[in-house]
Amino acid sequence: MDILGTIIHGLNLAAIYGLMAIGISILWSSVGMINMAHGATFAVSGYAAWIVAGAAKPLIAAAFGKTLMAKLAMAGVTVGAGTLAGALFGAIIYLLAFLPIHDKPNFAVRSLIVTLAINLATVQILLWFFGPRQRGLPKLFGFGKFEILGVPIRYDQAGAILSTAIILGLVLFWLRVSRKGLEIRAMMQNPEGAVLSGISVRWTALPVTMLTGALAGLAAILLSQTIFVSPTAGALPLIKGLTIALLGGLGSVPGAVAGAVVIGFLEATVGALPFLGQRYVLFAQFLFIITVLIIRPRGLGGLLDETRE
Amino acid sequence: MAQDKKYYPIGQRPHELLFYPPGDEPLRRRRLPGTRRHLFKWRSRANPKTLQQERRLADKRPLWWAIGLGALVIATPFLSNSMITIAAIFCMFAAINVLWTLVIGTAGIFSLATLAIVGIGGYAAAALNVWLGLPWPLMFVAGGLAGLLIGGFLALPSTRLDGLYYALLTMGFAEICRVFVVQLKALGPTNGSINNVGSFIPKDWFLQRPGLLLGFGGAFLLLLLSLLIFRIVNSERLGMLLQTAREEEAYAEAVGIDYRRARMYVFLITSGSLGVIGAFYAMFYMSISPSIFSLDQLLLLFAMIVIGGLGRSEGAVIGTAVVVLIDKGMLELGPLRILLIAAIMLVVTLFANNGLVGIREQFRNYRNRKKSEARARRTEKGGEVMPEEAIEFTDKQEIYYRRFQKRLRDHLKTLITDELIEEHRKSPLGKHSDALNRVLNYFRRGEMADKYAIMRQPDGFHRYKIVAFSGERGAPPRLVDDRIYEDINEAYHAVFLLRVNDLLES
């Protein structure tokens, strides 16, 4: 077994799952909504990126030819389209699942059901328009590998790990320094207190849903370097993201990061072990999470008292 | 005389179904054998107008249940083969959903392992039948025992984890079951499914009309049994205990209700029953496949109870009917079916507080709110008693007194003109015109509370202030304003103006 290769693979998975899990976690802690349509956001962004990349390919080829510039432009267009589509889909979720019912009784359960319905409908619409065929996105980071300390790293792995780290750092920095970030953090700490000090729930929830949607879109682009885009591609990342968010303790961003790293490495290790293999990955993950939840009922980073009521 | 009187149908009462038993006979109420329960909730009352004895069915739900289920039983034998299958599937899923409602609604455990338990019960029963030759009647026992076992295993963390965490855990459990079954070496050749399971439907009847009818009959029986279990658990002791716990856990614990144990019992009872349904499922299809553990199937079932309304057995059954009809009855629509189901789910959740069965109550609340708003708008006028308020007064004289006062005030308001006020200013005492006399007489008859008076100040002979009586013996009058009048006529006129002002404002 190649230990270092497994570590790199684990980091790669952790980066992508972390993007999903942190989106779910932030949304839950600031708005109080479990977003089951996160998987739909994932699939929609993948398709949007695929369409835009297909449309832009001849244009870019005409403008730059086969230079490095063309590659950069292609990457920029793909990532931009995916992220933008994710943010827009987040806004749709905001309009359907948050705005009409956020002040009505039973909001947590009802928004969960609405987002579930959005997920079901979106997957069906995608199946209808694009069919079940899988589509490949252009390779952002190109093919090939390089070596660090004798460990071969594929370009897409390195790209995913680095860009996730940069984007997450930027998001957390923005949450820390900006006015809107302050409002979002206030909502995460104490929603009622935030409202009492004049923070609008509606105008804070919109950027949160768009931000988490954009994160899901980014995760879709990065994961599509390894797997393909298909209507049901969002289901597995959704389940993984949700379980990681729960494992980390819903609402805790450091917990979600820790959970993503643990699950990513677990997946890489189980997949690499000769007697277990890829088929037992989900099995092992769920067993691990169940064990952790039985020992720590509110996850790794969750507080033991009621964090959000 | 009284018999000749004609009554006009007003309000909701004429639409009420009433029975008139002979008033001189004692009331006989039959109890269900072996229990202290009555089948129907009859309420008797003597009508004060007609002096007749009336009986009213206070809870009509048993009637609706009987009509709905009876129509299903009577109509099904005349349907086509595919529709009979749909009816049977509806009954089976409705039974599962009723039990699931018991877990989510009554026990308050957000479990998603329902289908997993059904699947395990089915697999256990099917495996015992195929490989050990267990006869089919014992398959129910085997399925129930397997369900009970798994239920006991799953119930352990249910008291420790809450809400979403438990939902996730049970969802993971279903996934583990699916992977486990698919990976089993023995089931490898059939892709994880067990085929040729023995059944209560004879082999040569399978997929024939008599076989389908038999299957429907069994599924219907299953639905009735699960409704019975729902009724026994939900509205008897366990359900009452858990209702207290749902409202306030700490309080329930403080008065000595062990709600954790009650939840555990409910979970175990439903798990055992779900295992039995699983055995039935395997017999009904004569096979069982890992698709029962899949997430899509679970989501479809969840859509059913959400559309119907969480926590009520009617909701579970109605939601199942809607979704099964769309999913299995409109096969020609293709993928649009799921879209339709999602749209219904979306609309129901956005607009209804608790699914389809909650709409009636929600509409009534809405209508009552609008009614009381309109009433508040109407009753602002003049302090008169509105007809719908009149029932709140025992002394009906009060109603006429207030009506008279209102009309008097309305009339007096028309008399007050600038000339009248000028006339009073010129001579507050003495002979007045007819109109001014009427107004002054009304003022004199006013109630003592808040009646104005003129008080001479102790520091001078012609120094007056205006006060208002408290209307209570011993409580001093209050000062109306600080102004000092040097002339008694001026003070008289000031009091008059105050009263006119009050009259016009009333």
From TrEMBL, chain A:
<protein>
    <submittedName>
        <fullName>Branched-chain amino acid ABC transporter permease</fullName>
    </submittedName>
</protein>
<feature type="transmembrane region" description="Helical">
    <location>
        <begin position="40"/>
        <end position="60"/>
    </location>
</feature>
<feature type="transmembrane region" description="Helical">
    <location>
        <begin position="241"/>
        <end position="266"/>
    </location>
</feature>
<comment type="similarity">
    <text>Belongs to the binding-protein-dependent transport system permease family. LivHM subfamily.</text>
</comment>
<dbReference type="Pfam" id="PF02653">
    <property type="entry name" value="BPD_transp_2"/>
</dbReference>
<feature type="transmembrane region" description="Helical">
    <location>
        <begin position="158"/>
        <end position="177"/>
    </location>
</feature>
<keyword id="KW-0029">Amino-acid transport</keyword>
<feature type="transmembrane region" description="Helical">
    <location>
        <begin position="205"/>
        <end position="229"/>
    </location>
</feature>
<feature type="transmembrane region" description="Helical">
    <location>
        <begin position="72"/>
        <end position="101"/>
    </location>
</feature>
<keyword id="KW-1003">Cell membrane</keyword>
<keyword id="KW-0812">Transmembrane</keyword>
<feature type="transmembrane region" description="Helical">
    <location>
        <begin position="7"/>
        <end position="28"/>
    </location>
</feature>
<keyword id="KW-0813">Transport</keyword>
<feature type="transmembrane region" description="Helical">
    <location>
        <begin position="107"/>
        <end position="130"/>
    </location>
</feature>
<feature type="transmembrane region" description="Helical">
    <location>
        <begin position="278"/>
        <end position="295"/>
    </location>
</feature>
<keyword id="KW-1133">Transmembrane helix</keyword>
<dbReference type="InterPro" id="IPR001851">
    <property type="entry name" value="ABC_transp_permease"/>
</dbReference>
<dbReference type="InterPro" id="IPR052157">
    <property type="entry name" value="BCAA_transport_permease"/>
</dbReference>
<keyword id="KW-0472">Membrane</keyword>
From TrEMBL, chain B:
<feature type="domain" description="N,N-dimethylformamidase alpha subunit">
    <location>
        <begin position="400"/>
        <end position="504"/>
    </location>
</feature>
<protein>
    <submittedName>
        <fullName>Branched-chain amino acid ABC transporter permease</fullName>
    </submittedName>
</protein>
<feature type="transmembrane region" description="Helical">
    <location>
        <begin position="138"/>
        <end position="156"/>
    </location>
</feature>
<dbReference type="InterPro" id="IPR001851">
    <property type="entry name" value="ABC_transp_permease"/>
</dbReference>
<dbReference type="InterPro" id="IPR058713">
    <property type="entry name" value="DMF_alpha_dom"/>
</dbReference>
<keyword id="KW-0472">Membrane</keyword>
<feature type="transmembrane region" description="Helical">
    <location>
        <begin position="338"/>
        <end position="359"/>
    </location>
</feature>
<feature type="transmembrane region" description="Helical">
    <location>
        <begin position="163"/>
        <end position="181"/>
    </location>
</feature>
<feature type="transmembrane region" description="Helical">
    <location>
        <begin position="63"/>
        <end position="80"/>
    </location>
</feature>
<feature type="transmembrane region" description="Helical">
    <location>
        <begin position="86"/>
        <end position="105"/>
    </location>
</feature>
<dbReference type="Pfam" id="PF02653">
    <property type="entry name" value="BPD_transp_2"/>
</dbReference>
<dbReference type="Pfam" id="PF26354">
    <property type="entry name" value="DMF_alpha"/>
</dbReference>
<feature type="transmembrane region" description="Helical">
    <location>
        <begin position="112"/>
        <end position="132"/>
    </location>
</feature>
<keyword id="KW-1133">Transmembrane helix</keyword>
<feature type="transmembrane region" description="Helical">
    <location>
        <begin position="212"/>
        <end position="233"/>
    </location>
</feature>
<dbReference type="InterPro" id="IPR043428">
    <property type="entry name" value="LivM-like"/>
</dbReference>
<feature type="transmembrane region" description="Helical">
    <location>
        <begin position="298"/>
        <end position="326"/>
    </location>
</feature>
<keyword id="KW-0812">Transmembrane</keyword>
<keyword id="KW-1003">Cell membrane</keyword>
<feature type="transmembrane region" description="Helical">
    <location>
        <begin position="265"/>
        <end position="286"/>
    </location>
</feature>
